[in-house]
């Protein structure tokens, strides 16, 4: 099920733009959000989501390298406190992603430099 305003372009550009707008709207208003909207925003922003396997009714949002998680009920109205936490989780995931890409590029430069000096 797609949230209103999301169009499938086949390349994902529209959904990313819409996910950014969704996060902005979450900051402005924390009431009336559906779990599908959080899941779509999560998928576009380096955030993973899962449903507990043993009958749990919450969807758990998390990101690699980020300690915080955001639970949200799958079948009940989502409380504003969880909507406030969600953009913070996305920001933390982006920050971790930025640090990892910077670290990987530095490692790449070091290994290229090392192999060049060793081959002399």
Task: Set out the fold topology.
Layout: H1 13-28, H2 35-43, E1 48-50, E2 58-62, E3 70-73, H3 80-118
Antiparallel strand pairs: 1-2, 2-3
Q: Which strand order spans the largest sheet, edge to edge or round the barrel?
A: 1-2-3
Give the helix level as a range of percent. 40-55%
Secondary-structure-derived class: mainly alpha
* Discrete helix count: 3
Distance between the termini: 59 Å
Instruction: Report the average pLDDT across residues.
Output: 76
Number of domains: 1
Q: How much is the radius of gyration in Å?
A: 18 Å
Oligomer: single chain
Question: Could you tell me the strand content as a percent range?
Answer: 5-15%
Low-confidence stretches: 1-7
Overall, the morphology is globular
Spell out the helices and strands N to C: HHEEEH
β-strand number? 3
How would a crystallographer describe the biggest sheet?
A: 3 strands, antiparallel
Give a written overview of the molecule.
The chain has helices spanning 13-28, 35-43, 80-118, and strands spanning 48-50, 58-62, 70-73. Strand 2 and strand 3 form a beta hairpin. Helices cover 53% and strands 10% of the residues. The model is unreliable at 1-7 (pLDDT under 50). Helix 1 (13-28) packs across helix 2 and helix 1 packs across helix 3 (80-118). It has 3 helices and 3 strands, in the order H-H-E-E-E-H. The chain has a 3-stranded antiparallel beta sheet. With 120 residues, the protein is mainly alpha-helical. It has one domain (13-118).
């Amino acid at each position: 099920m797609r949230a209103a305003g999301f169009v499938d372009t086949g390349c994902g550009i529209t959904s990313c733009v819409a996910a950014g707008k969704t996060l902005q709207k979450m900051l402005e208003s924390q009431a009336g959000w559906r779990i599908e909207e959080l899941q779509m925003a999560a998928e576009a922003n380096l955030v993973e989501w899962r449903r507990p396997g043993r009958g749990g009714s919450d969807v758990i949002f998390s990101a690699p390298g980020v300690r915080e998680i955001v639970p949200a009920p799958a079948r009940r109205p989502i409380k504003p406190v969880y909507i406030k936490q969600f953009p913070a989780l996305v920001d933390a995931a982006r920050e971790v992603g930025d640090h990892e890409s910077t670290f990987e590029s530095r490692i790449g430069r070091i290994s290229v430099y090392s192999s060049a000096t060793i081959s002399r």
